[in-house]
Amino acid sequence: MKMTARSIVAAAAIAVLLVACSSNREQAAQVPKDTPGQSQPAPPSDSAAPPPAPPVLPEPAKEDKAKDEKPQPEKEPEPQPVKEASKEPVKTAPAQTATGSVYGGSSKSDPGNRKELSWYYMKKPKGQVPDFPHETKTFSKDMKALWVGTGKKVYLTIDTGGPLGDTATLVKSLKDNDAKANFFIAGYNVKKDPDFVRTLVADGHLVANHTMTHTDMNLQTDEQIRKEIQDYEKLYKEVTGKDIQPYFRFPYGKYNTHILKLVSDMGYSSVFWSTAMRDWEPRKNGAEDPYNDIMNNLHDGNIILMHQGSPENIEALDRIIKAVKKAGYEFALLTDIEPPKR
C-alpha cells in the first residue's frame, strides 16, 4: 500500500502525541503522596492497628484460670477432717475393747452409756437455780441421782478425798451454829481418823459412801466398783456400829450412765451439786473467796460442795453458816431432800 506524504505526516503526528501522553503519565506517577494540596487518604499505619489478634487475649485468660485452679486442690484437704477421721477409730476401738474386757459387757450393750461424763452446772444470777448438764434429761427412772433440792433448805456436802484438814475447827463451827452437814469421806481417811467419823455421827451429821480409794470409776470394772462400795459399807459398820445411809458421790464427779445405774441398783442415790468452788487449790483472797462463792450462788435447794482439805473453807465456814441462815435458809441432811420433779 502506498502512503501519501500527507498520511505519513499524520502518522508521525499521532506518534508524537502518544509519546507525550506517556511522558505525562510517568510524571504524574512520580508526584510525592504527601505533596501539599493533595487530598489522597493516608495509607493505614501501624499505630492505628487494632490490639493484638484475639488469640493473644485468650492466652492470659487461660493462664489466670490455671492460676485460680492451682490452689483449689491445696485448700480442699484443709477443711476435710482427715486427721479427725483417722482418730475416731483409734478412740472407738479401745473403748469397745475396754467395754468387753473391763466391764464384761456384751456386743448388744450400747457403747453410749460408757461415755465418760463429768458433772458441772451453769450458774445463774443470785437466787436462781443453775442449769445442769443435758445428760440429766436422759437419766432413766432407775438412775437415782440428786443435784438440787427445793424450798428454803441448803445441803452442805463436805468431801474428804484429800487432806482431812482442821477437823476440830470444822466440828466446832458446825456445832456452834447448830448446822448439819453431809460428809463424803474416802475410805482411807475413815481408817486414818475413825474417831473423827464417830464424832460426826454422834453430832447428827450424815456420813456417806465416797469409795475406799477415791479412784475415777470410769477406769474400774463393774466388779471393782462393787467392791469399792461394799468394802466401804463394811468399814463404816465397823467404825460406827451403824448401817451406812444410801447416798453416794463419784470421786471427782466423773461417771457414766452405766455406772450411775450400777450404783443405783446397789441401792444408792448419787449426789452431785449445784454450787462448787475451786477449793482444791489456794484461794487468792483467802476466806473471802469461799464466802463469796457460796453467797453469790445461794438458791433454793442448794447442794453445796465444799472440800474439807481447804484451810480457807474451814476459816470461812462459821461466817458462811451465819450468812446463809440470815438469808432465810436451813441447813439440812440429804435424808430430808425433796428434789424437783423430772
From TrEMBL:
User: What are the protein's GO molecular function terms?
Assistant: hydrolase activity, acting on carbon-nitrogen (but not peptide) bonds
Which residue positions does the secretion signal occupy? Answer: 1-28
Coiled-coil intervals, chain numbering: none
Q: Does the keyword Signal apply?
A: yes
**Pro residues bias: where?**
41-58
InterPro entries linked to this entry: NODB_dom, Polysacc_deacetylase_ArnD
Q: Where is the composition biased (Polar residues)?
A: 94-110
Does the keyword Signal feature in the UniProt annotation? yes
GO BP terms, alphabetized = carbohydrate metabolic process
The cellular component terms of Gene Ontology attached to this UniProt record, alphabetical and capped at eight, are: membrane
What positions does the domain NodB homology occupy? Answer: 152-332
Segments of skewed composition (Basic and acidic residues): 60-78
Q: Which PROSITE patterns does the UniProt entry name for this protein? A: NODB, PROKAR_LIPOPROTEIN
**Protein name per its UniProtKB record:** NodB homology domain-containing protein
Q: From which organism does this entry originate?
A: Paenibacillus solanacearum
